[in-house]
Amino acid sequence: MLRLPVVRGRARVDWAGILLLTTAITALTLGASWAGSTYAWSSWPILALGALAVAATAGFVAWEKRAAEPVLPPRMFTGQRTFPLSVGALAAVGAVMFGCTLYVPLFQQMVQGASAADSGLLLLPMALPVAVVSTLAGKYISRTGRYRALPILGTALLTIGTFLLSTMDTGTSFTLTSVYLAVIGAGLGLTMQVSGTIAQNSAQPADMGAASAAITLFRTLGGSVGVAVFGGLLTSATAGSSASHQALATGTSHIFLLASAVCAAAVVLACCLDEVPLRK
User: Fold this and answer.
1) Under a CB-based contact definition with an 8 Å cutoff, are residues 247 and 111 in contact?
2) Fold classification of 79-271 (topology level)
3) What is the pLDDT of residues 166-180, one digit of tens each?
4) Residue 35 forms beta bridges with which residues?
5) Is the Cβ–Cβ distance between 74 and 80 less than 8 Å?
6) What's the whole-model pTM score?
7) What are 205-255's pLDDT values in tens digits?
8) Is 26 helix (H, G, I), strand (E, B) or coil?
9) I need a surface site. Which of 17, 41, 165, 219 has the fewest CB within 10 A?
10) Computed from CA positions of residues 112, 114, 116, 118, in that sequence, does the dihedral angle turn out positive or negative?
11) DSSP, res 280
């Protein structure tokens, strides 16, 4: 029987990095949530939260460069560009995914007249393509070892789908909304899991745990900040109008027009990806 030496080490928890990162995320999320709804964009609470987010982020970056065991190793972001580009695309995916699951059902209930149960079922045209397309994308990557074209196509479909959602008004039918959601579902299927795989593949084996955590972090952060900003846009559109159908339709249009711009930026990020050979 082969006996290997047992090496026991004691991990060092990066408490300072965790505190700085939590402060930055909290300030950013609160600022995005309150801006345009609770406070004006130029008000001192929003400016103070923005300054705190910037200061905490700068402090976090400076600390991580000299931490013994950083919570997010800087080498993942500076060694090559594939990892930061992938998590950037995932942040955009998070914003679109959470935005659709929250604001499309709201539109269907308040504007199209669907019940709460029906509005949930009406998300199936988005959910089903996610499952099918992500499975096919995984099989394609496993068979060919190539993946660069998938996030480019996926983010392009997300851009088209969110733009189509921005054209919805009080006369838009459930069928047309379902078609738009199917386009977004296909885009999510080509982007969400694929970008995570690309990010993990670009990280060193020693950083695999941190890379997996960063994938979840940026996807969730993109969703949190995106939903907060989208909520501010909807609040601004419906302010003083007693949430009329037209005002809600206008607010929804603003939400998905912004989401489309975010997805267009993600297309640029995806086009800059390098196709690093998959790790065996």
Assistant:
1) no
2) Growth Hormone; Chain: A; (1.20.1250)
3) 999 888 889 999 999
4) 39
5) no
6) 0.85
7) 777 888 888 888 888 889 888 888 898 888 888 776 555 778 888 889 999
8) helix
9) 41
10) negative
11) -
